[in-house]
Amino acid sequence: MKKPIAFLAALISFSAVVYAQDVNKIHKKAILIDTHDDVLSRQIKSGYDLAKEQPEYDFDLVKAKRGGLDAQVFSIWCDEKGDYSNAIREIDSLYALLNRHPKQIELATTAVDLRKIVSQNKLAALIGVEGGHMIDDDLSKLDELARRGMIYLTLTWNNSTKWATSAADERGGKLEKQSLGLSDFGKKVVNRLNELGVLVDLSHVGERTFFDAINLSTKPVILSHSCVHSINPIPRNVTDEQILAVGKNKGLISVNFFNAFVDPKHEEAFKAFLNKYKDEYTALRKENAAGAKKELIRRHYDEFEKIQPSIDLLVDHIDHIVKLIGVDHVGIGADYDGATSYPKGLNNVADYPKLTEVLIKRGYSEKDIHKIYGENFLRVLKASKGR
Q1: How far apart are CA 75 and CA 44, in angstroms?
Q2: How many other C-beta atoms are found inside a 10 Å radius of the C-beta of residue 241?
Q3: What does the pLDDT read at residue 174?
Q4: Label partner for 282 (CA 20 to 30 A): which of 26, 181, 309, 359?
Q5: Number of H-type helices and E-type strands within the chain
Q6: 253: which strand partners?
Q7: Residue 188 exposed, middle or buried by CB count within 10 Å (0-12, 13-18, 19+)
Q8: 3-class DSSP state for residue 43?
């Protein structure tokens, strides 16, 4: 009996090695593009060099290389109190990173640029501006952001502008019905983005704004970091009707990794976690309000891990979009460095191979994975830019 058992164990071990090699091969061959990371708005305060490994951040060039990340769209973000000057400052900080490390990272504004940079074994850096409030209701400032490399503009963040209403405000019932959607100026913004070859990003926007914009746009739109409303019905996630409209538009939905977007049970479980350590959390907020939740998670990770959703639940969101409109319209927009936590095992950009493994187990082909990871985004970027 020992020989058959030993043979079976050896066969299982051999199969595991072959499978791991297949996962690694598929992962390395793909052009992996993440359409949304918020590290710049954090880095600009700390001054940390993103070319070095930074334990506090989900993205740095060391982790990116380890995770097989080929291109990163850096989110230019500030809250509703910020403006155009904040956007310029963050773009300048990215330029400074590019100038310090030209052998590791280079700016891309077109699909052609991106492929060339990746072929040189460098990370392609792209710029996405998250929030229309940063154009200060001024089309000339929109033009300048495009000149400086902006490849998409998210029409709103959580706050509405004078010309576009957000999901937080529309679904929160904070606005009068007659004021929902795009104003005449908002329509000029969408038209100008089309003329400039800048993608219209409809993550964060309200349904009325979404349909006003997608019906107006002459080019494919993108949702840079969103999940599925029918799986987790929160204001920021997109409905089946919206998903179908993106398919008709030939656009792209990049799936967000934030646990609160992925898992309908997570928010209540996380509230209970915060409440259990209420005094400690309050003290942490006094030291660093922005980083208090992440620090509390770090201190009590063994317990937090019990309420983390699995990567499989994240892939359920991908599956849903694929079933509705096909694999040509799904991408990855993890929201690293902008969200509090992510599915178990996907803690930062170094962990992307774990997602590849789950996608393969779910039956996605190598071609499908390559589309999800980058080819779909390259298609919409090319359609927007013309190259």
Answers
A1: 12
A2: 11
A3: 72
A4: 309
A5: 19, 9
A6: 223, 330
A7: middle
A8: helix
- Structural domain count of the chain: 2
Could you tell me if residue 25 is left (phi over 0), alpha (psi between -120 and 50 degrees) or otherwise beta?
Answer: alpha
Q: Which two tokens stand for residue 365?
A: 């082909």
Residue with tokens 């959703």: 309
What is the pTM for the complete model shown? 0.93
Which position has the token pair 């349904």? 207
Strand partners, 105: 123
CATH number of 36's domain = 3.20.20.140
Residues 132 and 183 in one domain: yes
Low-confidence ranges of the chain (pLDDT < 70): 1-21, 176-178
Say how many C-beta atoms besides its own lie within 10 A of residue 176's C-beta: 7
Distance CA 50, CA 34 (A): 16
Identify the sign of the CA torsion 147, 148, 152, 155.
negative
Query: Is residue 86 located within the same domain as residue 168?
Result: yes
Rounded to a whole number of angstroms, the CA Rg of the chain reads: 21
Q: Quick check: is 284 in a domain?
A: no
Domain assignment present for 302: no
Does one domain contain both 15 and 127? no
Same domain, 3 and 149: no
**Concatenated DSSP letters of 283-298:** HHHHH-TTTHHHHHHH
Do 20 and 148 have their domain in common? no
Whether residue 11 sits in one domain with residue 47: no
User: What pLDDT is attached to residue 2?
Assistant: 54
* DSSP string for 316-358: HHHHHHHHHH-GGGEEE---BTTSS--STT-SSGGGHHHHHHH
pLDDT value for 4:
64
Beta bridge partners of 201: 154, 222
Q: Which residues are paired to 295 by β-bridges? A: none
Residue 173 near residue 212, CB atoms below 8 Å: no
Q: Are residues 42 and 20 in the same domain?
A: no
CA-CA-CA-CA torsion sign (206, 208, 209, 213): positive
How far, rounded to the nearest angstrom, does the alpha carbon of residue 183 sit from its chain's CA centroid? 27
Domain span holding position 12: 1-30
Q: For residue 274, is it within any domain?
A: no
* Contact (CB, 8 A) for 161 and 132: yes
Distance CA 152, CA 225 (A): 12
Q: What is the pLDDT of residues 2-26, one digit of tens each?
A: 556 655 554 444 445 545 668 999 9
**Sign, Cα dihedral of 220, 225, 227, 232:** negative
